[in-house]
Amino acid sequence: MLVVDDQATNIQVLYQILSSDYQVLMATSGAQALALCASKQPDLVLLDLVMPEMDGYQVCQRLKADTATRDIPVIFITAQTDESAEEKGFDLGAVDFISKPINPRIVRARVKTHLMLKAQSDLLRSWAYLDGLTGVHNRRFFDERVAAEMGRAIRNQTALSLVMLDVDFFKRFNDHYGHQAGDDCLRRVAKTLKNSLMRAGDHIARYGGEEFVCLLPDTNFTGAMQLAETIRRDVISLQIEHAQSSVAPFVTVSLGVGCKPEKIHGSANSLISLADTQLYKAKEHGRHRIFGAELTE
Ligand code: GH3
Ligand code: MG
């Protein structure tokens, strides 16, 4: 957690109470607090209300206005006892108040409660972004992430690629082997995708029923096509029997690659529809193959 107070002695008091149970970071100004919240993502901020330059209200307001820090709970520490100060703090998004002089047992109890609530909401948030069947990210995650990555790629003039893939003749697979086997097949394909992606910044999501998408920051067209080929081969290596497929005796995938080159300003939607069009072409040309293209504007 992070303790913010312009008086070093106040920080020391809280540090002594909390440091045996928690990792405690310290800041003596609002600016320092904001920087530490952005870089270290503490699970809780204990924030002094009255500070020179930027006061606690302003720090709280800034934390809540930034998507990167808005989920960090803030508890105000204050010697003020009037209710309007407290009301204002809650209005700005604080979760609690602790009054000075500090009572160690009350501080420990409130901190424990809010850290537990933070852990629970973190867990719920992460579940909301996962696909229940395969355990990879879901469409909601992808939609948010692709927009953010496109913004970053444009700012930094880096490439951004998408690989979309769809299982071939999957309806026939379900009809022949049953829905349970179909689900199992999707789980195995998802696991293979996870293993095929090498870089820490890469993401896989289940885009629809039997359609998956890989989001590849800082990856150019050649790199994305190579990865698509690796995925194509890795899926056949699974050798999942598919007697009803017209292209192979086992499960195969078709892939569409879309790439935003370094110097091009694209949009998330144009990149998605490019990859989607390429996937459609791969299907049209017989399936179990890869088509790709780059954005040109
Ligand atoms: P194509 O090669 O053109 O992609 O043909 P296809 O049969 O794979 O495509 P189509 O869109 O006709 O059928 C997709 C099938 O995927 C139909 C649907 O029942 C199945 N499906 C979608 N989601 C799930 C799922 O979660 N589990 C299972 N078992 N099947 C699913
Ligand atoms: Mg399909």
TrEMBL record:
GO MF entries = diguanylate cyclase activity
EC class of the enzyme, as a word: transferase
- What biological processes does GO assign it? cell adhesion involved in single-species biofilm formation; negative regulation of bacterial-type flagellum-dependent cell motility; phosphorelay signal transduction system
Read off the Gene3D superfamilies from this record.
3.30.70.270, 3.40.50.2300
Entries under Pfam families matching the protein: GGDEF, Response_reg
**Keywords carried by this UniProt record:** Nucleotidyltransferase, Phosphoprotein, Transferase
Q: What is its EC number?
A: 2.7.7.65
The catalysed reaction is: 2 GTP = 3',3'-c-di-GMP + 2 diphosphate
Q: Which residues carry this modification: 4-aspartylphosphate?
A: D48
Which residues does the UniProt record annotate as the domain Response regulatory?
A: 1-115
InterPro entries on file: CheY-like_superfamily, Diguanylate_Cyclase, GGDEF_dom, Nucleotide_cyclase, Rev_trsase/Diguanyl_cyclase, Sig_transdc_resp-reg_receiver
Gene Ontology cellular component?
plasma membrane
Boundaries of every GGDEF domain copy = 158-295
Cross-referenced NCBIfam families: GGDEF
Kindly give the PANTHER family that the UniProt entry links to this protein. DIGUANYLATE CYCLASE DGCM-RELATED, REGULATORY COMPONENTS OF SENSORY TRANSDUCTION SYSTEM
Q: What's this protein's name?
A: diguanylate cyclase
